[in-house]
Structures are given as structure tokens and as C-alpha cells.
Amino acid sequence: MPFIDLILLAACLVYILAATFDLATRIIPDTCSLVLLLLGLLRLLLIDGSASAFADAATAAGTFIVLVMLCMAGLLGGGDAKLIAASTFFLGFERLADFFSTTALSGGILALLYLIGHAVLSGRTMRLPPLSGAASRHSWRRRLKVALAAEHRRVARKQSIPYGVAIAAGALISLGGLH
Asked: Cα dihedral sign for 97, 98, 101, 104?
């Protein structure tokens, strides 16, 4: 397996992890962004070389500065800002337009799904499965039901949308251009 395929596989896993954490906790771990930065450095060393390194780093830094201002204004979460900036560096300047457009489209679809979910779920409750023994407390089915109940509650109350899911979707769609 070529080294670039390992980098792409690692990036896919990072994006899946970031989306999963954001969906479950509304927090994107900083380690996801740091790993993407390291994978971006590997990409530059093995594929693109130093010719695009300055453009990629400058674009990522500029993106991060703008996103921090949006975060300070309360329009974006800090984890989202870090993940977008790290993704900008990892994907490179050439794929920036694809990444931003697919992320925006994914975010719009996600927001629409949450609006539909709010209309359908508001006023309804979802019961947690009963605890019947220590083994069932840790079963994957019960954990999934607890996670679904928590998400049901968030959607019904119009709480935050896990934009990390849209960022991950946009990045995964844009990853095809790295070969």
C-alpha cells in the first residue's frame, strides 16, 4: 500500500472520529486537528514538496484568523474553527474551493435535517431503555439508544448543530483530489 494511501486512510479515520465526537458531545478533540496538521506536513514532504508549503500554510493561517474572529463573535465553535483550519492545511490550497463549497453544502443539508427534525420531534419525548442488570448498562444497543435519546432532546430543543459532521463530510468529499 503506497504511503499516500496510508495518509488518506488516517485522515478519513480522523474525520470520522471528529464527526462522531461532535455528534455525541458537541466537542471536537484538539487531537483531531493536530493529527490533520501532521498529516498535512507528511503530504507536503511526500507529495507536493515545498513549492506549495508556503501557500498552504498561509491559507491555513489566514483561514484560522478569520474563523477565530467568527468564534469570538459566537458564530462558530472553537473546535470547528480549528478543524476547518487544519483541514485547509491538510487538503492544500488547490482544493480549498472544493472543501469550502462541499462543507457549506453539507452544513446546509445538516441544518435542513435538523430543522425538519425539530418540526417532527418537538413536543415528543423519547424514553430511555430500562436498566435490567449490569450487563445491559454497557451493551452497545443501550448506548446507541441513550445517544439517540440525547440527540432527540437536542433536536427538539433547537440546540447546536454538530457542524463537525459537515466539515468531515466536506473534507472526505474533497479527499479524492489528493491522488
From this structure: negative
Crossing angle for the helix pair 30-43 and 3-25, to the nearest 10 degrees? 160
Over the Cα atoms of the chain, what is R_g? 18
- Of the candidates 103, 112, 61, which has an alpha carbon nearest to the alpha carbon of residue 80? 103
Alpha carbon distance 170, 179 (integer Å) = 17
Give the DSSP per-residue string, 55-117. Answer: HHHHHHHHHHHHHHHHHHTTSS-HHHHHHHHHHHHHH-GGGHHHHHHHHHHHHHHHHHHHHHH
Q: What is the pTM of this model?
A: 0.82
CA 15 to chain CA mean position, Å: 6
Residue with grid cell 500554510, as numbered in its chain: 57
Residue 118 gets which letter from DSSP? Answer: H
Closest alpha carbon to 149 in 120, 124, 116: 124
The whole-angstrom separation of Cα 140 and Cα 76 is 32
**Please, are residues 84 and 103 in contact by the beta-carbon 8 Å criterion?**
yes
Summarize pLDDT for 36-82 with one digit per residue, the tens.
999 999 988 887 666 778 888 999 999 999 999 999 998 889 999 99
